[in-house]
Specification:
Chain lengths: ~280, ~280, ~280
């Protein structure tokens, strides 16, 4: 077993040449910011081009947080400095689209909060397995006056149907592991004590299969199950536009006053708190 | 709280300027007939054009019946007199399509039977929540020799998959709350005692969010999750054609002989009874 | 009740003129080989052209096996001798596509293993009902270095969503009745003792309905729920190409050494065994 750290805070471990593990370790909350874009870009490029890797598991080293929202404290120019990605999409949606298309099986192992970017990354993966007790998925954005930007309007209705997708997106609430499975938001939710073993066994199994058979089969599934890039593109623009509007600015300000971006109740129960903003206006 | 009755039997109540409730009160069975078309049209136009409303809940004032089938006692000329709607579709499918596209979140609160038009209205809404004990959904039409006309062949397969959609449509049986949730026919079924509180809390929550964020997010979902109007259009024509055929006329006649359109076992267990018609031929 | 055997090992029984039963009786394992292609072709042609039949149930006479994989002992020239079907597709995918489009309701009653061709036939049917205790569905092919050929990459993501479809196809493992229902791979799984009665009651019910109403309603569902033939076509070519590659040949050889194509643990637990091949290389 060899371990290689290719990036500061997003760790790539080669469990074997065929089975890799990518771990988000961005303490204290696994907030995703502009500094993480080149790190994830490096990981995605390796996944796309390595000749041996067959399966990649994305997980977290931070207790309680799989991966959460974008860093709203980052300077706008920091986020705007990245060139368009290879697909012609903005950097973050570009990487997510490339994970979906990569000739490698991607699995999200979700323990803790998968909010915003975390949910969007999970949705871009080929499969999602969650902790029944400890996973919380959410697209919280509408609750803060924002439009989600990383593809969930394109991906969620295809995965779970229009009705449940609209509930997730417009209800903007936290979805626990049991309900996430019932809705198909994740493949399955497993008892927390069994989750790692289950995902490891599945990844080990897939890593034992023939790469060409995996790649061709996934490619044929992609033909009918992936949204076209033209449907992903407007989401990021809509997110940026919403971020500049007074409604979002006022709500984000209220969230920051209450502890947003810091360990504590706001980040732990974000779904609840975005439902309380109006009454405070 | 202000209440406005804009139409005789379909009541619009403004719980708040942002949160409206539309209640079907067509005793004794919530049968939908030509008289109700202009009433629903008025409600839909208000929903489309009001600048403040963000969420509308559709429910029923009639015990045991959310909203059921079309009025087969109405004179054909009464049903045929309505001009095509704004979308170019016939009046009923036009209104359903407009509810799906409206810049407002629509929620069906289903208690009692949602048969035919009732199921079709629920399917046109953005979300559906049902009473686990008291909801019964059904597309009963094929059991009476009819083809459903209000969009379920376009909407159900997208929502619950081809296999379960064909079972609902070709089995033509009543689907209880528990199975409706398992199939994804509704978002969730809740214990009857909790349903109103749950839907009210969700509607109140959404009503507290920013209307533009809601509208833009829903619009992006619509892009990939709504059937094109050209796929809705042939259903109404197929319904009308089927209604004129001897097979449907004979079956409707048998149903009327047994109490169709009157309170009683036929309307309460319509799924069962359409399965008994052939043996009586 | 009249029984007609139109083909040696695939039996057609007319429960009534409107309700037919097609039973796979290919002992000892219900392996599907080139000899069965003209038999199934005869059945499919009858289903397509008979004026009275409304519903067909596909089931098995072999304990433990609904219908499993292709016959890998058949001479390649035996499989290659069939002309393209009416759709222009190869013989097997042609028949599956025609079952989906036929003006008749097709129901798979799954008890025992539905592996490979068996799963693909079930997916081509309009509905699937499984034994909760005794059904095992699987697309095992990737585990043997093969690409599935009979349409599952086109059909499964539409039915159960991309994430679960990729798990079924790339995990290549056996899926029991309970999980198959949870994933939507089957409509429902019923207790084994109730399965036959349930399916018979549903088929009898549908057989009592008007054929034209059934046919037109199914046709309108087909418009948005069937994959285009152009998406089915490349799967068979990919299967044949994969079959010729060393990776598949080596894995099939290992399987044969352990008892493949014979009654025993390999065929009974094929999902498990394809996961053990790599460690034996």
């Amino acid at each position: 077993m060899s371990t290689t750290t290719v990036a500061g805070d997003i760790r790539l471990k080669r469990v074997s040449p065929e089975y890799w593990q990518v771990t988000f370790d961005l303490p204290p909350l696994n907030i995703f910011g502009p500094a993480n874009i080149p790190q994830l870009e490096e990981v995605v490029s390796l996944i796309e081009t390595d000749e041996r890797v067959k399966v990649v598991v994305f997980d977290s080293a931070i207790d309680g947080f799989f991966l959460i929202h974008y860093d709203f404290l980052a300077k706008p120019e920091e986020s705007a400095k990245f060139p368009l990605g290879r697909t012609g999409l903005q950097a973050l949606p570009d990487m997510l689209v490339r994970i979906s298309r990569a000739p490698v099986v991607s699995i999200a192992l979700i323990r803790g909060r998968a909010t915003g970017v975390g949910s969007e990354l999970a949705l871009a993966c080929d499969m999602r397995f969650a902790s029944r007790e400890k996973a919380l998925l959410s697209q919280w954005e509408v609750g803060a006056g924002l439009v989600p930007g990383g593809g969930p309007m394109a991906r969620l209705p295809r995965l779970i149907g229009r009705g449940r997708a609209l509930e997730v997106l417009l209800g903007a609430d936290d979805i626990g592991g049991e309900l996430a499975e019932r809705y198909g938001y994740v493949n399955r939710s497993l008892p927390d004590a069994e989750l790692d073993t289950f995902v490891d066994a599945l990844a080990t199994r897939i890593a034992s299969f023939d790469k060409q058979a995996i790649t061709e089969t996934k490619h044929l599934v992609n033909l009918n199950s992936l949204p076209p890039d033209a449907e992903i593109a407007p989401e990021w623009d809509a997110f940026l536009a919403s971020l500049g509007r007074p409604a979002a600015q006022a709500r984000l300000r209220m969230l920051f006053e209450r502890g947003f971006h810091k360990p504590g109740d706001i980040e732990t129960r974000l779904g609840y708190h975005v439902g309380q903003l109006r009454s405070a206006e």
